[in-house]
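Key idea: predict the complex, not the pieces.
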Amino acid sequence: MDYLDKLEAEAIYILREVAGQFDKPALLFSGGKDSICLVHLALKAFRPGKFPFPLVHIDTGHNFVEALEYRDALVNKIGEQLIVRKVEDTIRERKLQDGKGKFPSRNGLQTYTLLDVIEEFGFDACIGGARRDEEKARAKERIFSIRDEFGQWDPKKQRPEIWNIYNGKIDKGENVRVFPISNWTEMDVWNYIKREKIELPSIYFTHERKCILTEYGQLMNVNEFVQLEETDTIITKNVRYRTVGDMTCTAAVESEAYTVDDIIEELKNTKISERGATRMDDRVSEAAMEDRKKSGYF
Amino acid sequence: MELLKFFTAGNVDDGKSTLIGRLLYDSKSISTDIIEVLTRQSKTKGADTDLDLALLTDGLRAEREQGITIDVAYKYFSTDKRKFIIADTPGHEQYTRNMFTGASNADLAIVLIDARNGLTDQTKRHSIISSILGIPHLLVCINKMDLVEYSEEIFNKIKQDYLNFIKPLNLHNITFIPVSALEGDNVVESSTNMKWYKDLPLLTYLENIRIDEQYQNNSTRFQVQCVVRPQTKELHDYRGYAGSVLSGKLSVGDLVQVLPLDISTQISKIEKNGIEIQEASADDAIIIHLKDDLDISRGSSIVPIYQMPTIDNLVNATICWMDNKEYLKGQKFLLQQNSFRTKASIKEVLSKIDIHSYANIEDVIDIKLNDFTNVTIKTAENISYDSYATNRKTGAFILINENTNNTVAAGILH
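Result:
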């Protein structure tokens, strides 16, 4: 069996385990390529039936408009339920402090919205598109990752996950984060997108964009949320996004990739990792992701 | 391109993480930004080398602080020939359950032995666990050859010791390679320091070893994960059983038995990715339709009538205890075999396996964390299974504590 077939079969198996084990699952959809692949896999797992879960989007308010348009078009096309909850509303209702500084991030704030929506609908399982190759703390997380009622991950209390037997048994109030494409790498995702001819938001491909260069040498999009300083020089570059996160914490990369084939070729030759190239949120400390997960993050 | 899953076993300081780091580094699977971070960390940690490759796999804060691997880390790399998934498993005895977890899905084990020390308790323990799990291939890497002057004599002695030790075990397809993970000898490139070693370096073995399904019998096994019922106007009568083929092949027209219902029927349709197919084989995620309308739910098995599994509510098993709290006599569990769950209890404790000598201890007083125990289990419902030795998919199960919901044991059926 080809490795992409194996990875696909494993992911479908996991999605069906979610359908079989939980009363109220949800699929966390961000509009990024990983969660787009999840939707594609769910179509394979459950059609001609409906998905046994809604798609849930945590809208930070800092999303790329292309990602939002893609989201709505996709939901329309597949005819599944979409639940959107806005970080802005959470900030107002909970009187939280919005992100500050030059690149005001809502990365940490979306955890509140996520935990609220889990409570609001009583979700017992949330399917996410995280991959173990992304980051070293993620490399340690189980496919069925048990979270307590505060959404917290405790790496020391992980259940052993043996063979392909997934134990999703939980008490009321707890939930499980399920990561069906844990074993996929960035390159696997792109090879799969190519093979399955999956459509993506346009920002994954090269386009002209006004950017500024950060102190780490990353290209940040100029938009209404970024506080420009006098010393900033606005440059126009041909760029694309390797990951689609918030406009305030996702950097673009210079690229001439017009097609999926071009992207695969580009990735073969790149020397920088996916998160290293694009995420400002991981630069904070060695354990940034571990700490965020411990407090309920995706 | 094929996918090979392997794990690394060996003593704490035998250089497992270094070896994995070496494979990733030499196959150019580590990005420059990660190398920068590692170099910075190596400096602050005061490591002997400029780049401490072990830091690559210790992803948790506690691991970096203690300088040991506590939980399994999964790493990915590929060459032109194959794609690899590595489970970097901990060496310490107290983390045996995590080692068992990482090893359970592997096609191959790399057993590392420090050339200066030869066989240790951990080498033995890991080899015994590999044997219990029926790992199809073993690559024994005798490491740190640079510290024993690349001596062929030492290599041969350890090789002989190891072969003697594993005689009673269920291990086959064993290859010995002298390496230095730190210096890179015989990892990716053939070593120029050991001209006496005429065989291939480690990576070449990993790229070429046959990924055979020899542990699987030819019996066809399928379990229902969930039922697909669209209940729309157009698909009013649609009722499909979604699941993966665990082993063997299923074809349209096959006469099958549905278990535990124990009713025979025929496969009328198979769908994969929304397309009708005539035949499905191992790992295929499919939807099955049956000729008769039966009350089939999650956990039901669908098997060919001429290849029946064993069906019983009293089974013999070897279990690895994984809970911090020891087994309490009379404790009730949920037994889960793939998607099938039933209540279960331990009817009789037969013997314990000494994980360092493979000796059988008849007088069992307790079952504690990391113990391997032979038991008889009674289940509430009949379980359909094959012995683990003939089918790794239907011969494996976990025990769940009904009260805490934790996975407290992993077991293989005999």
